[in-house]
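To: structure subgroup
Subject: Chain for Friday's discussion

All,

I'm putting the inputs and outputs inline so they're searchable in the archive.
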Amino acid sequence: MKELSESLVRSGLELPEDLKINAIKEVPEKILQFGEGNFLRGFVDWMVHAMNEKGLFNGRVVVVQPLGQGLVEVLNRQDGLYTLYLRGIQDGKVVEEKGIISSISRGINIFTQFDEYLTCAENPELRFIISNTTEAGIAYNAKDRPDDMPPASFPGKLTVLLYKRFLHFNGDAAKGLVMMPCELIDRNGDNLKKIVLQLAKEWGMGEAFISWIKDSNYFLNTLVDRIVTGYPSDEAEKITEELGYKDNLLDTAEIFHLWVIEGDKRFSDELPLIHAGLNVVWTDDMTPYRTRKVRILNGAHTMTVLAAYLYGLDTVKECMDDALISTFMKKGIYEEIIPTLDLPEKELIDFANAVGERFRNPFIRHQLLSISLNSTSKFKTRVLPSILEYVSRKGKLPKVLTFSMAALIAFYRGTEIRENSLIGNRPANEYKINDDIPVLEWFAGLWRDCDGSREGSRELVSEVLSKTDIWGADLNDLPGFAPAVADYLYGIAAYGMKEAINELLK
């Protein structure tokens, strides 16, 4: 079977009727993108394609492979083309869309084509830099040097490109670029700018260049939200037969998407994402949107999955299909989390409704155990702030969120560490608890000393809540929290998770 390519598309190959494909146009490269992986292709490049489809942007993306191993060779072999399947639930209905995405012009392997990479800096049409180099990608590397080909870090690679552009255009203010990092760290644009300026100073690139960076280039903070499930290995053979061609870059993602961009809204005219009908928010302050995502989406996960796993479920969709667990989750979201947030109530409810549809997506098997990784740190950032804010506003404890702390302690019940995991048990099977080793060893010691009595539960909970290096405070100081968690924990141990949740929801 032939591989996807521009010539194949132009050859008149009979394609499925529901496969969307647009005319492939030769338009200038306006975006330089660090990263060729599933996420950016299923998110940003799909958005660029959508803008081009409506005649709003008329620009393409040149992709830089930031790591030694990558997909640029395959990308170039397929002329930048790939097939994207978007699948999920929207407005209560199962939706499936598929199309050939043509927004990428070419790929560059920076390790073998460094000169070609620097030549991109000379392109007068270039305006935007997009990146997704993992959460660890925006980091300072003291070993980077300006004559490295290339520097090891992403900020280092970007700094040499910006310096090349500065020199080529003689510091022309109009030739500055707009950086829009998609790495999942807080204030990603601010952090990237800080490191670039640090490198420019250390590398002696001059005050004129540093001023050009500060005054003529823009580093926007962004928040991205879409589950991109990537290459569907278990379905690839079936999909290939359906398409009639082979696509080594086949990508899959959920229907839902959201891109929150903090920065000057005039850029929204240059990059007309909203005009293309995309779910994009340009804002002066992305903090409320980040808080909304962390508290509702991520918080719902952390609040629910540990209890649900001990209850006997294995995936997020199973949680939504189970009447008891879905009620538990909805009560936590709508009655306890949303009242602690400051965005308009309709926006919060609409977002929560969308989260529910995402969790019910029949095309995604999101394993509860995979979400349970490092649950202690996740609880601190995703759930604890909602508990504290609820108490501050309502003067009482939120029952579901308080119960979720007891569920966490119950989930971390184990005395044996095996292959860097604490071994827990539920009625059907044993399971691996994965967190920092000191955390696992600490829980193992606590559970070895617990006799299972009501008093023993209280002592164990008191020890857990006093761990300030995990929670950032002694949670025993939160009025009523320790005895409530201890009672819930004892109920889970004595009567089982199902009965404990039933009793909670009464």
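Points worth raising on Friday:
The longest strand covers residues 82-90.
The CA atoms of residues 162 and 406 lie 51 Å apart.

D.
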